[in-house]
Each structure stands twice: as C-alpha cells, then as structure tokens.
User: What shape does this take?
Amino acid sequence: MSTSCTKPTFTKDYWVMDTYCTVTLYEGVSKETTKIVSDILNDCEERLLIKDDSKSFFAETDNCSIPIQNDIYEMLELCLKVSDLSDGKFDITIAPLSVLWDIQNRKMPPEKTDIYEAKKLVDHNNIILTENSLTLLKEDTGIDIGAVGKGYAGDRTAELLKEKGFNSGLLNLGGNITVFGENPNRDDGYFIIGIKDPVNTSSVYASLKIQNTNMVTAGGYERYFEFEDQIYHHIIDPETGYPANSGIKSSTIVCENGIIADALATAIYVTGAEKGIEMLTVLKNEYPNIAAVLYTDDGNIITFNIANYEFTTYNFNGEISYYE
Assistant: This one.
C-alpha cells in the first residue's frame, strides 16, 4: 500500500510491533514530537503483550485462563465476531498452525500428519471470554493477537495523538493505513491511498480517497517461501491447514474500526469473494462506510460500497464488478 501526499510537517520511521511504522503529522509539531509518538507506539505494543511479553498465549492445560485488560477483551470480542461471520475461516486460535508453518524460517511444508494434528486445535469455540479473563478450554490451543494488533494500534495511536493536540496525520503501520483529520495538501482534505499490485508489487493498481478511517490490505505476496515450484504464504486456512487458496490475490478493507478492517481483510482473503460480500453486507449495518476492493486470481476486481471513496485504477485491463 502506498500513500500520496506532500509537504508533511513531521514524518519519521519507527521500528515497533516487528515492523517499520511511518508516522506523518501536519500540525501541532514540537521538538518533543518524536518522543511523544515513540511513547504512544511503544505503549500500544506493550498492551498487545498478553502473556510473558508475548502477543500469543498457549494453554498448558485444559481450561487454562489468564487475566486480560479491557482493550484486549474488546479486541478479542471483535475477532470472535468475525470468526462467527466467516464460519471459522478467520480464527484467532490459528496459532498452532501458524507456529507449525513458521513461514519466515521454513524451506519446505510441514508433514501432513503434523498439519492434521495442529488443525484439530484450531476452533474459536474453545474460547471463553470475559471482560477480565481469557480461557482456552483445550490444552495446547493457542491464540495470537498479532494478526489484528496493527489495526488496534492504528486506532489507539490516532486517538492518543489527537489528545496530544495533533489534529491531522497519516499512520502507516507496516502497511496498515490510518488517517485522521484533514490532509492539508489537498483542497478537499482527503488522503489518496494506493493499493499495491499483488502481481507487480513495486507499483499500485488502484487508489481510494479516504478520511478519518483505516485501510488494510491482506495478501500472500509479502511473506512466503517457495518449494518445488509452489508458493506457500503466511495466511493459513483453518479448514485445510494449508495457505489459503480462495481465488483472491489481495483483499483491501476500509473501515473506521481498525480491528474489524484488519480481521476482515484476512477473513475475506481466506473465504473468497462470495462469502466476503456476504460478510460485508452484514457488517454494513453496523459500519455503514465499510468498503472493500478485492483483486482476484484471474486479474479482475470486485468492489463493495466504494461510491464515496473515488476509486481509481492504474494501467488495469481486467473487469470490475461493483457491489453495494
């Protein structure tokens, strides 16, 4: 994902949440700004550590519980909502499979028997969630909230920056985009955000015009390994235990709730377009401005509710389907 804006008052890169984050602010900047932003980002990262300085938690016994903070409860509640909507295709308990695949370090796929055993541990119905605690009902079940951490961090960082007097900005948290306030470099105050081409990743194939919202793209083109002429990427389908193969190369979601945007981008990448449109239609009742742009394996585009976002394509020759 790329951004189109000029003359920022303040822009700086940070390494946090295991990724590069670029923060751009347009007013209220002072000599303390670098530290203010750093403190906010570090606070977000600390809040995402749910047990033993980790974003993950594995049950050592049946009915294993840990205390959680209120914002983690709210995050997990939204994740479970998307799990239910996707019929489990997005599942916060994917951790046993994610750890097994270990995409960044593997050179070849895991054994089929190991995938089968790990797959049996993935089931969001094994979670009991209260405002103060998280319980995993089955031993060796695990969750990893890193999958939606950047969506949470985008919303929280924007909120805290506004409280500190920064009225407009653009946050790029490892590709997750959050914008707030008005872009002073455009008369209409909007931000033009490009969507990375999943085939030619050095360019963008489309852009959207957004304001005071989040824009998240999920795709298998960033983290993967190749084995025997086949690509194995990091987004695992809980049903098969293998990298998702739903007919979508990238899934872009716009939503004012960053956690929903993050979770749904992954969910639709796994479920495919038909189920994705169904989920978007349901969520539109709660988030009227939610929108999506899906790039399919056959080189076409499927969109949902993009009328207000000035959708533009670049050097694109495929077909575009529009849903509202």
